[in-house]
Amino acid sequence: MPDYKIGQEGGLYVVEAGDADTLATYSADNELKTVDEVTVTMSSDQASFSDRSSRAERNRKTSKNIEITGTVNVDAASNDAFEALRDAYLEGSIVTMAALSNKLETGSEGAEGNFTVTGFNISQPLQDVVTVEFTAQHYHGGNWETK
Q1: Is the separation of the CB atoms in 20 and 14 below 8 Å?
Q2: What fold does the segment set 7-146 form as a domain?
Q3: What pTM does this model have?
């Protein structure tokens, strides 16, 4: 029987850019512990071209795009990762993020790089937890990392 991974085994880490270049520099303090749903979308741009000899159109991958979206349950306690995410949106600064399959354990893998936070939507329902839905777009240095 397959041993499937479940979402709660994963970890989302957020650090102000410049504080982390690799996965090894993340710590439990940088984990966004109150995140509910996380989605990593990876895509690539392509250029289409043809030449006179073959007259066939070809496509070539030109760049890769990574987008991380998620919903965070807002906790009254201070959280370094949430503050880094919020401040990056408010100040237009860059954060380093890693969305990993297994927290910070050996064998963990996922998207990692520098991101700009392009969306920060706050929901305040009357009888439920306050949440923030965020969108982070790849800025540079995005990779699929294995620890």
Answers
A1: no
A2: Factor Xa Inhibitor (4.10.410)
A3: 0.82
